[in-house]
Description:
Number of helices: 7
Number of strands: 6
Strand order of the largest sheet: 4-5-3-6
Strand content: 15-25%
Order of helices and strands: EHHHEEHEEHEHH
Largest sheet: 4 strands, antiparallel
Structural class: alpha+beta
Shape: elongated
Amino acid sequence: MTVGTANTGPSLATAKSPSALDGTDLAVLRVLVEEARTSQRGLARRIGMSPPAVGERIARLERMGVIRGYRADVDYGALGAPLIVFLGVVAVQGHDQRNLVRDLGGLPEVESVDVITGPLDLLVRLRLRDHAHLRETLFDRIWPLHGVNRTETFISLDSMEPKDFGTSFLAALLGSSLPTDASSRIDER
């Protein structure tokens, strides 16, 4: 399971400042990122707190929007969608890109949509069965969308296993914000 990996929620520009969180909050997040199915009792034991105190921390982090949810890490290839395609989209000049992002996000094949800088306006990640499914999706669903000027298609030939960004990012934050004794207590298993 993963914590807070959905594309919805605050952007980096509006995200909560790490300074609003203390070392204990970061320690709770680090354990949840490593294993979201950890019980409150197990989490409390790992960071040296009582289960009710950990429960209060988790509830506060959820209210703040720092923890956005708990999700299963699904292998979509095993479910019949092994082909990953990145689609660069140039929008029609003057078209409201928010509408195009919404329309693209409504397609079942679309895994994510990012508004980007550079010669392209959007980067869309698609999950597809095969090349015929790609052709059908482009011709019948994406190209007819109002606001699409042109697209560039990039087929993923291979990819690295996703790195554990959350754990290393939180460890770096913990290293810069916790006293030595607290950080060593968190690392104990």
